[in-house]
Amino acid sequence: CFLLFSDYSKVHLTQLLEKAEVIAGRMLKFSVFYRNQHKEYFDYIREHHGNAMQPSVKDNSGSHGSPISGKLEGIFFSCSTEFNTGKPPQDSPYGRYRFEIAAEKLFNPNTNLYFGDFYCMYTAYHYVILVIAPVGSPGDEFCKQRLPQLNSKDNKFLTCREEDGMLVYHHAQDVILEVIYTDPVDLSLGTVAEITGHQLMSLSTANAKKDPSCKTCNISVGR
């Protein structure tokens, strides 16, 4: 496969996107994005970065041809909710402290949404990476050249629609969404609190390698 040393093109990513759409499942309502870290992380942000979480370069998890790995700078957020409560799960692989922010502060008509990757790590779960970038920002320019753009109001993964003058949010039920926001985020825009659940390290995706044999999330690329 000649792509071992080069990035997926938008054509390849569109093929991945189409595969991801097949298994995305029905949409569930949500209202917050959240990010789990250790207490030390948030202390450091307050002391050294004037209270603002800074974008960092994405690691090499996911597809080996992903054009965002090692290049795109952003901050990872989750938005998955528990099916029965409609709230974020109380467990996390990334630390006992959680920053929670209202969805409209990150995802709104002034942001663009891009599809970044689709992968699994030898498990039943599939992950979809999406990128939210403020319109005209450096992150937006980076994505525009490399990633398929999604219609924020109408796609299979993450939607923001206006209903009765309010923005309403939904996420796909059957994939785990990893959302990258490309600008700094001030902690004062949300809340930081300790979660009551467990730290499930087995669910961490840091530098996770994609299962190359999975028929669901791999595309065949020419020789």
How does this structure look, described?
Residues 6-223 form the Phytanoyl-CoA hydroxylase-interacting protein-like C-terminal domain. InterPro entries: PHYHIP/PHYHIPL (IPR042868), PHYIP/PHIPL_C (IPR045545). There is one protein chain. With 223 residues, the chain is an alpha+beta fold. The protein has one domain (30-194). The protein is built from 4 helices and 14 strands. It has helices at residues 10-23, 39-48, 103-106, 138-146, and strands at residues 27-30, 32-37, 52-53, 56-57, 73-77, 97-102, 111-119, 127-134, 149-150, 158-163, 166-172, 176-181, 185-186, 191-194. A 6-stranded mixed β-sheet has the order 4-5-12-8-7-9. β7 and β8 (127-134) form a beta hairpin. The chain is globular, with a radius of gyration of 17 Å. The model is unreliable at 1-5 (pLDDT under 50).
SSE blueprint and pairings:
Blueprint: H1 10-23, E1 27-30, E2 32-37, H2 39-48, E3 52-53, E4 56-57, E5 73-77, E6 97-102, H3 103-106, E7 111-119, E8 127-134, H4 138-146, E9 149-150, E10 158-163, E11 166-172, E12 176-181, E13 185-186, E14 191-194
Parallel strand pairs: 8-12
Antiparallel strand pairs: 1-11, 2-6, 3-13, 4-5, 5-12, 6-14, 7-8, 7-9, 10-11
